[in-house]
Amino acid sequence: GAGVSQTPSNKVTEKGKYVELRCDPISGHTALYWYRQSLGQGPEFLIYFQGTGAADDSGLPNDRFFAVRPEGSVSTLKIQRTERGDSAVYLCASSLKGGSNQPQHFGDGTRLSIL
Amino acid sequence: TQLLEQSPQFLSIQEGENLTVYCNSSSVFSSLQWYRQEPGEGPVLLVTVVTGGEVKKLKRLTFQFGDARKDSSLHITAAQPGDTGLYLCAAGGGSNYKLTFGKGTLLTVNP
After folding, report:
1. What does the pLDDT look like over B88-106, one tens digit per residue?
2. For residue B83, which of B33, B5, B17 has the smallest C-alpha distance?
């Protein structure tokens, strides 16, 4: 399809494990964003990529979280030593270019559950 | 940190009724976006407002940006069950690409 694709759609793992979440943005979109949405909350910003570089990672909660976008397209969000508090829906969005007036197109998210 | 407060948090109405939901802040925003999110899906952009006092219409939905660019409202006329969903407002300031979202209004329209 032409939209933002996120895989897996659901991930269940045990506390302490490592997880990788993948995002395929819309082709040609240079800006990519990761957000986290907990139950009953709006999405919270995690990190923003412009091209291959992380232009702003100020929303990452701690050093267990890391994200890459090596070729300026697909991005992977990596979480080490997962904790139960990491359980949430992780949303990826892309836009044609950066800027708050740019429409951000969201994927359907990865629902992460840490047991 | 910009804080967006949305009200009401929950709203349940009958088909055909009108409703208004609100998004308020003490901060000034360069733009404000409204999204609708359905269960198991990502938010879908409805509209972006950028000018104080701006009014935009999308079929039965009317969006207004406050004169001081600190608040916004969404009015739905003759609500339909297909309008059911979580309505989120999101704002950025200046050249900030980083959107700050409110907690949303969960709307249920009963047939």
Report:
1. 999 875 555 778 899 999 9
2. B17
